[in-house]
Write a structure and sequence with these properties.
about 35% helix; 5 strands; alpha+beta; about 25% strand
Length: about 160
């Protein structure tokens, strides 16, 4: 029984380690302390989309191993072998489905217009901010990945006093 618990724990860890996010509120460690390019833009439209889950194979392998171990512990030697094969196949299918469903993300497709008139569309996971048509935003690009954020308020600098 402890083999089964160990295998299930390993399978869960492998599936969870394959998870990645496109959430704009989560910055990858490698992007910290790197200079990013910032562009001003205006939101033209925003719509809800879903980022499909990944199928790296880790979920299928982890599920297959877990199913094989669980199945092989059933009955005698011959019954255990048959159940192990069936368990491996069923576990692989279930593990793959779990990986795909745990890596799906609700997202936004945000269409913006840059100051030079060019239009861009960016898909990012839903974060803390919502975007409406006409909202001023900035596009922050780091390491080839772009995220959309609300533009910070800019207070005009006071003009220097002139002496006459």
């Amino acid at each position: 029984m402890s083999k089964l618990v160990t295998s299930l724990s390993l399978a869960a860890a492998l599936v969870l380690s394959a998870c990645a996010t496109s959430n704009p509120d989560v910055i990858q460690r490698g992007d910290a302390q790197r200079m990013s390019q910032v562009q001003d833009a205006t939101v033209l439209a925003s719509r809800s989309v879903v980022i499909d889950g990944s199928q790296s194979g880790i979920g299928g392998v982890a599920g297959g191993v877990t199913g094989a171990i669980a199945g092989s512990s059933v009955g005698g030697r011959r019954d255990g072998q048959v159940a192990g094969v069936i368990g491996a196949v069923a576990g692989a299918v279930i593990g793959n489905a779990i990986e795909r469903s745990t890596t799906r993300e609700d997202a936004l497709e945000i269409t913006v217009q840059l100051r030079n008139g060019e239009r861009r569309a960016i898909v990012q996971a839903k974060g803390a901010e919502s975007f409406n048509s006409g909202d001023p935003v900035i596009l922050v690009t780091t390491g080839g990945k772009t995220r959309v954020m609300r533009a910070p308020s800019v207070v005009p600098a006071a003009a220097p006093a002139t002496s006459s």
